[in-house]
Amino acid sequence: MILNGYPLPRILAPLALCGLLLAAAATSVFSQPEPGREKKRVFYLNSYHNGYAWSDHLQEGIRRGLEQSRYHIELQIEYMDAKKYPYEVIADTLFRLYQDKFVDEHFDIVIVSDNDAYNFILEHRDRLFPGIPVVFCGLNDVTPEEVDQSFVTGILENIGVRDTLELALGIHPNKNKLVVIGDESITGVAIRKQIEAVQPYFEDRLEFEFWERYSLREIQERVRELPRNAFLFFIPFFHNVGGQFMSASEVLEAVAMVTDLPIYSNWEFLLGHGMVGGRLLSGHLHGRITAEMALRIMAGESPSAIPVVSEVVDQYMFDYQVLMQRDISRRQVPPGSLFINEPEAFYELDKQVFQVIMVSLFTLVVALGFLVRNIIQRRAVERRIRHQLSFLEILMDAIPQLVCWKDRKQRYLGANRAFAEFFGIESPRKLLHQTDAAMLPNSEFVDWVARMDRQVVEEDRPLRKIKAAVQDAQGENAWLEINKVPLHNEKGYVVGTLSTAENITHEMNLERQLLQSQKMEAIGTLAGGIAHDFNNILTSIINSTELALGDIAPESATAEDLERVLRVSSRGRNLVERILTFSRPSQEGFRPTDLPALVRESVTLLQRSLPRNIVIHDSISGRSDPVMLDPTQVTQVLMNLCTNAFQAMQTTGGELTIRLEETQVADADAEELNTPPGAYFRLTVSDTGSGIAPDTLDKIFDPFFTTKGKTEGTGLGLAMVLGIVKNHKGAVRVSSTPGQGAAFSILLPMIAADRSALTTHPAPIQKGSGVILFVEDDEEQLATTPRTLEQLGYTVLSAAAGNEALQILEQRPDIDLVLTDYDMPGLTGIDLARQIGLMRPDLAVILVSGRSYVLEMGEAADNIRLVLPKPFNKADLSAALSKVLAKVPTTDQASGRVSDP
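Given the sequence above, the corresponding structure tokens read:
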């Protein structure tokens, strides 16, 4: 009878014999249970047969792992024999056998090795071992994602074929052809897929050829014909020769006998049968890991909590005899590799010769002992001293502070690397036995340090936390916080000084920045309060003057006087704006500007106006793409700085340098300057004048601080420069050396301009119509502003407080707009706007204020359409009313209808 091409007796006979043998093995393979040990039953299904080295190693590793548990394990082992008989032929027969055999058996866990047993259990688990968790090992061509971990976990047999092939190419650089010898079994196909997966890594280096359907004789014949540029990779497989099965090791030996080409593989059990070696899988190790997983599950863990192990670090192993036969050096294999068949190194010496040598050595040792002892002791002391000195040097160089130590005559005994680098000295050793005068260029600093050293030596008292300004090796100004302590000898006498210094430049700059910000904030708050009252006064003056001009002849002397009042009021208005420049950010004048062109234009103007004893040098670069800034304010900054430079050089003459360039502000500098990091324009104005004294350098940006005469300046110039630069989100840096001039660097952020932004022009005075409720607690404005509004064509109702305004609104539904001051007793202008919003949500409100911060409060109430700053004139009122009432329906007084203008 034939089943799938195989004689049925040939299949059933081995199976029957196997069943009888395994029935005997079904009993416990371990010792009888000890009292108190819990018993666990384990079913182990082996894809292959007893005697196959790979599965034998797996089984041994599993056995040893289970033996080390706290349980008494009863291990039931079954062999599928799938290496000899195809899976599809034996699967159904084995299922019926196991179904009858284990119908009344219960197991705590199922362990399977290799793909055939794994596939078998997945197919028949629900009928053979329902609900029993499964642990696998030796599994090929399966990814962790394909494993149903609700009841299965285990370890995959992923071979390190890529590492082995890379190793082979490194040992045999002249090889470019790989022949893979295997079979078409489930395992063989799975391993071939793993090899094919690494083919792309060797696309230009290796030609792959797979032999899977040849008999052993055909393989031997084809191997003999392979060219010298080839080498072999062996996949474990069994071979049937005349009804006799040859193991994988026997097949490998048969192939190795007919060729001297190198053979590589990835399985440890094949080593010693003719192959060179490689990164080899250990069945024992995989088996122990599998046993550990099974024990964790039997202890209560879920298979889903135990990740599938997809890779185990394998060991590089080689056959020493094969290496020698193939002329491969041990230096060509990875360090730490293991070797088999390596000859043991041993040496044999004649006994009498050995005795003579030993006696001679002993005599020499005794003769030289005393001398050697003295030499060793002395060298040990020297070595300890060198180690201590080396450690001290390493420790000193690791300290970021500047450290040096001197003798009583102020000659250097040592210094660390930070000290040498700060002062631009090539090595600390260059300082040895030198003085400050010989090594440091700054004479004032050298004299100051010398006085401090003498004071410490003479008074035997330390000096701590003394701050000093000094220039570093790059010529940059820096601040050091210095400590000096006396050094004593063993008798307590002062023999020198030890100095440490910390570079606190960054901290000093931050402190200066903080103090300047606090100072400007306080002055800005004061200026804002003064400006509020002054703006109220100016508003009344401007409105009264405009009203008076309307009542007299335009060409009269009185009209000229009143025009003069308006001009002076405008100057007062500008003065308030100048005072507020450094305290109130405003971007009203920002527009797209070509900064390089603007600076060139200003330089051209300066060249025509400055005297000839001052030479102007300019270097203007940078992109011409428009950036957002206020060109008037930037021009004012440049003119103020150039004016100061001119005044510093007007008697002696000199050079004025104006430079514009692009730069990047890094994070560290941005923190110090209180600006965001990024791309900036740097505008530098430097002169060769008298410079700025150090004691006034921190005050130059204070408002009203000046070193000039009464007729030369007000002290607002640099304060306005700082205010304008801060308004542009930029920063100012100053460097000056008395007698050598000063340099101001202005950093302006490169904010890309919106090309759609258009320059707007003030609209002419327009008359309008409608009813306006004017709310103001200032009596002067309450008397003048309503008249101005009436001249513009509006009907005006006045109120001196918020509550009064609300009463008027209840009585007059025809009011079209409310014009209210912010600062009022009781309800503020914003409070009033909110109350109006509750009564009449559609009624528009214009908020008026002389305080700078109120200008940013337009969104405090939904019905505030506009915030009008004080002081204002008739044109400002006209523009504001026209803008707001153009969007608001007005009441037709004649008919009482609401119309949209």
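The longest helix spans residues 351-398. Try to locate this feature in the token string yourself.
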